[in-house]
Amino acid sequence: PNVASAAARVAEARFTRVQTGAALLPSLDGTASASRGTSGFASGAPSGGSASSAGSGSSSLGATTPITTLQAGLQTKWEIDLFGRLRADRDAAVQRERSADAKWHEARVSVAAETANAYFAERACQQQLRVAESDTRSRGETARLTDLSMRAGFTAPADAALARASASDASGRLTQQRAQCAVQRKALVALTGIAETELETRLAAAPAQRALPAVGRIDSVPANAIAQRPDVYAAELGVAAASAEVGSAEAERYPRLTISGNIGRTGFRVSGFRESIETWTVGPVALTVPLLDGGALAANADAAKARYTEAVALYRANVRQAVREVEEALVNLDATDARTGDADAAVQNYQASFNATQARFDSGLASLFELEDARRTLFSAQTARVSLQRERAEAWVALYLSLIHISEPTRLGM
């Protein structure tokens, strides 16, 4: 829907541009009309008429003749753009159309980035779900063995209760994690428009984790990489359009020159007699000079200048925001890349520690508290690694979103 709305605004801007461009050309209208009527004369009654004729009226209708009148012609009108008002309106409309097209690209990029983030969130959710399933199985097995040991009299009831509580806690987290994954899939269905059953099939066939490119050293980002962003380009075009509108508002305060004319033919048909008359007129040539308007035109020009100032401020804000987003994305990518090795090492070592504690617990050399502490630490490390992988993917999406360019031929020289 966002992309469709942006496309509709592009179409609207295109039609506005055509409309303002047409104002520079003469207008031509065709006219046609037909009418039919009668023409006659009235004759009075004789002065010495009888009483009956006097009673019927003092006059009578004479002979009538039907007349048919046909008219056809062309009328034209043209405003001479003496001070560039119409050209400024056209230029502003052209810039608005280009700006709308850039915003359409921005909508596409935003939807693509939002979909990518939703996809990576769903993949991360599935990884966390597998971690939760493994943790739940481990805790459930510990609770089962501890319960058997308690029944045999080798384990205190408090330890068995602690093991059952830990298993229940893990089961609750697993249920919550499944619900979160289901919600993430609903978000993907809404963003992509793909049926949920088909989406589930595609996700099942896709790899659980996609490898992301390595981050190389980036000393600087060219200014053109920022200028070609759809939002920055749209803001730049907004400045150009506002500048043209200032010129149009200023030209409104000066005289207007309009030329009109017409050419036509009129035909008459009366009792078998036909006659036509051809006419043409050039003019009037009208010069309209604004004299007194209570300051409306001056206020309109000042308002246009204020809008131009606002457009410049918005453009500067867009550029600053673009630079900030690029730099933040690069910093986050660098940081997540540096943290990846530490997260992997933490999971490996915590896993080794848990395995050793599990072996000691099975041999009766470690307490249940030690085992649960090692398990909790391992679970936290595994969860942190999944979160880091998702954070790294989101940083790549942010970099894509902050540097994506538009395919605008006049802009990129293509």
List descriptors.
414 residues, alpha+beta, 4-stranded antiparallel sheet
Structure description:
This protein is an alpha+beta fold. Helix content is 66%, strand content 17%. It has helices at 2-22, 51-55, 85-151, 157-192, 196-205, 223-227, 230-251, 296-362, 368-403, 409-412, and strands spanning 27-44, 59-80, 256-270, 273-288. It has a 4-stranded antiparallel beta sheet with strand order 1-2-3-4, with no helix packed on it. α3 (85-151) packs antiparallel against α7 (230-251), α3 runs antiparallel to α9 and α7 (230-251) packs antiparallel against α8. It is elongated and about 135 Å long. The two termini are 30 Å apart. The model is unreliable at 47-61 and 406-414 (pLDDT under 50).
Nutshell version of this structure?
With 414 residues, the protein is α+β, with helices and mostly antiparallel strands.
The total strand number stands at 4
Strand residue percentage? 15-25%
Element pattern in H and E: HEHEHHHHHEEHHH
Helical stretch count?
Answer: 10
Strand order of the largest sheet: 1-2-3-4
Let me know the largest β-sheet: 4 strands, antiparallel
Topology of helices and strands:
Blueprint: H1 2-22, E1 27-44, H2 51-55, E2 59-80, H3 85-151, H4 157-192, H5 196-205, H6 223-227, H7 230-251, E3 256-270, E4 273-288, H8 296-362, H9 368-403, H10 409-412
Antiparallel strand pairs: 1-2, 2-3, 3-4
